[in-house]
Recover the amino acids of this structure.
């Protein structure tokens, strides 16, 4: 299987197209068209069961001067010399209020589709004393 996310497989104009996109829907469409199967789905916010995650995202967005856009779930994120274009895309999205997460890290709530961490991230948050529900669920407590 070839790695279709390497620099040689990504249209070098994607970043330019993203910079000129009018809104998050257009940006997502550009990514889906130019890097098929990388951007899997997006969510508007974190589940209310995980207020620290939402507050941290909002805080970071405030620091960079852009409002939160969407939590973008992607196939994978790479940090090496063969994926520089993808890293630039991730940096651009992050600086513009997006939160990039791997598909193995977060899932949408089965009901409201807000971001819920996977079991491993839930356990990590719990160990660190961060506010989380008593037990992990695939959906929000309110849903």
């Amino acid at each position: 299987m070839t790695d279709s996310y390497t620099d040689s497989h990504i249209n070098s104009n994607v970043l330019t197209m993203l910079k000129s996109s009018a809104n998050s829907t257009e940006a997502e469409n550009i990514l889906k068209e130019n890097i098929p199967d990388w951007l899997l789905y997006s969510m508007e916010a974190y589940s209310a069961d995980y207020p620290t995650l939402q507050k941290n995202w909002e805080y970071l967005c405030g620091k960079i001067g852009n409002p939160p856009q969407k939590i973008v779930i992607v196939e994978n994120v790479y940090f090496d010399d063969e994926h520089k274009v993808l890293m630039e895309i991730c940096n651009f999205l992050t600086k513009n209020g997006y939160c990039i997460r791997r598909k193995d890290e977060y899932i949408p709530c089965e009901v409201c589709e807000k971001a819920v961490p996977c079991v491993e991230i839930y356990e990590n948050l719990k160990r660190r004393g961060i506010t989380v529900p008593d037990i992990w669920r695939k959906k929000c407590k309110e849903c």
Q: What stands out?
A: The beta strands are 39-43, 71-74, 99-102, 106-108, 115-117. The longest helix spans residues 51-64. The CA atoms of residues 4 and 36 lie 8 Å apart.
